[in-house]
Amino acid sequence: MYRQSLAPGGSGGSSLTARLAAKKEELRNLQQLELASAQLVDQLEAMKDKIETMADGAQAIGEVMNNWQKVLRAVSLASTGVRSFAVQTETGEEEEELLPEALVRIRDDE
Predict the structure, then answer these.
(1) How does DSSP assign 20-58, residue by residue?
(2) Which of 48, 69, 90, 101 matches a 20 to 30 Å C-alpha distance to 54?
(3) What angle do CA 86, 87, 90 make, to 5 degrees?
């Protein structure tokens, strides 16, 4: 199977054996590199999925924060637009009491 060297002492055979061993080691290293590369691809794809999930979550959080801004603005407008109500005391005198505007929920079927 292997070509034998014609030189005395068989020194050609040992160099061929050494070369074959080096090639086998190189093949083994390439196979390990291929396996490590495949594992890296799997990990990067899993990371991509997690990042997409995080991006979707960040968008949802942004929408919630935007809604809270609108709610707080509505509460602020309602509390600054106070109305005066005349309240009669027990002595018959009228006293003005400041109350906030009533907030009303309106269904929005969009």
Answers:
(1) HHHHHHHHHHHHHHHHHHHHHHHHHHHHHHHHHHHHHHH
(2) 69
(3) 145
pTM here?
Answer: 0.46
d(CA 103, CA 79): 10
In tens, the pLDDT along 58-105 reads 989 989 998 998 888 887 777 666 554 445 555 656 556 666 666 677
Q: What is the gyration radius of the CA atoms in the chain, in angstroms?
A: 41
Question: Which of 1, 31, 32 has the alpha carbon at shortest distance from 16?
Answer: 1
Phi, psi values for residue 2, rounded to 5°: -90, 145
